[in-house]
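Fill-in record for Endoribonuclease.
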Amino acid sequence: MGIEARLTELGITLPQAAAPVAAYVPVVVAGNIAHVSGQLPFIDGALVTGRLGDDVSLEEGQAAARACGLMILAQLKNAGIELDRVERIVKLGAFVNCTGDYTDQPKVANGASELMFDVFGEAGRHARAAVGVPALPLGAAVEVDAVIALTDG
């Protein structure tokens, strides 16, 4: 089954790829590796803002991380990369806007990690960093970036 069919089976519609908010490009391909810049969480067109451990629940954080994962896929497509070319999700970096005593960053990041496994199966399993930060661009609750191996295309 192709990835587009898998997305349909999962009931997933990718969002419109967000424009960069500063001086960078969303995706850079070097050889067969796609580097996807940090993506912010948009749900129903609205940016998910706030801080875990304060005004954002674990479940809301996980949904935000999943939304970042969806935006990563949308950015690949927007860059002209067919999702069937994804050979492996190599690494995700998850940044969680949280209070100083918050320790569930890995659970928040699972929102993006589980999405990648659901969509790509074993090729979606990846290395990962999940870190807490005191602030993110535009007040976002979560930001996720990615390193993705591509097949020749």
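KEY FINDING: Residues 58-78 form the longest helix (21 residues).
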